[in-house]
């Protein structure tokens, strides 16, 4: 078994080798998710990313390559870098005790459309409807409306990533996200796995994550490429 610390250095790669193996598309040592589920890719040898990216672009018009400290090589005649997200990885040290006062619901497939609509309202861009298949999603309802969610994304036999932390603007700053993150983290711990999350550097939510017991551990950069 690959040590947890090694897996965390390349979480997309190891997710696609374990829990999410059914979603993998591989081109000569570069691995991508099925683009209907997620458009993340991972590698160890950056000299292979240009050819692999050209192949993957036959299935989608954009993708991310995720790396701690390597810079992908691309075919700039066919691909351009739209942006580089300077991200960071956070790993749970010890979960802070959080009072759960809201009714938190495990969201079944019947809520796929509502999850999609809420995420695109708050964070438009890259969430796909089948991203739901990557892990469990939990939500809080107000007056019969889904107003806050969090979910699970990348995962292996040793870690699960907390992701899709989204609250409708009308219900922001009411502590809903805090309770959802705490609940989702507890569910991960029940599986004897390490909770992790990724965010961009400088995100105003980082102090909240730290208060919940997460610690900054490493850079994790997201290179967003698009077809020319």
UniProtKB/TrEMBL annotation:
Gene3D superfamilies hit by this protein: 3.40.630.30
One Pfam family here: FR47
One GO MF term: acyltransferase activity, transferring groups other than amino-acyl groups
Signal sequence, renumbered to the chain: none
InterPro entries per UniProt: Acyl_CoA_acyltransferase, GCN5-like_dom, GNAT_dom, Trichothecene_AcTrans
Domain named N-acetyltransferase: residues: 90-228
Protein name as annotated: FR47-like protein
Organism whose genome encodes this protein: Maribacter orientalis
Upper lineage: Bacteria, Pseudomonadati, Bacteroidota, Flavobacteriia, Flavobacteriales
């Amino acid at each position: 078994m690959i040590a947890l610390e090694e897996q965390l250095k390349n979480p997309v790669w190891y997710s696609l080798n374990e829990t999410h193996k059914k979603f993998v598309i591989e081109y000569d040592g570069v691995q991508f998710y099925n683009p209907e589920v997620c458009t993340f890719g991972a590698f160890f040898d950056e000299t292979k990313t240009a050819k692999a990216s050209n192949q993957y672009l036959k299935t989608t018009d954009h993708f991310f390559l995720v790396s701690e400290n390597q810079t992908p090589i691309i075919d700039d005649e066919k691909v351009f870098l739209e942006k580089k997200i300077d991200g960071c990885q956070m790993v749970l040290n010890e979960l802070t005790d959080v009072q759960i006062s809201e009714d938190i619901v495990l969201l079944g497939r019947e809520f796929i459309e509502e999850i999609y609509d809420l995420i695109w309202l708050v964070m438009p861009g890259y969430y796909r409807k089948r991203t739901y298949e990557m892990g469990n999603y939990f939500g809080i309802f107000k007056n019969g409306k889904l107003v806050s969610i969090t979910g699970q994304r990348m995962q292996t036999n040793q870690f699960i990533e907390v992701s899709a932390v989204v609250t409708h603007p009308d219900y922001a700053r009411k502590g809903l996200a805090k309770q959802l993150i705490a609940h989702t983290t507890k569910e991960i711990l029940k599986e004897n796995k390490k909770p992790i999350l990724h965010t961009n550097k400088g995100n105003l939510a980082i102090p909240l994550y730290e208060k919940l017991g997460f610690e900054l551990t490493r850079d994790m950069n997201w290179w967003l490429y698009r077809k020319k």
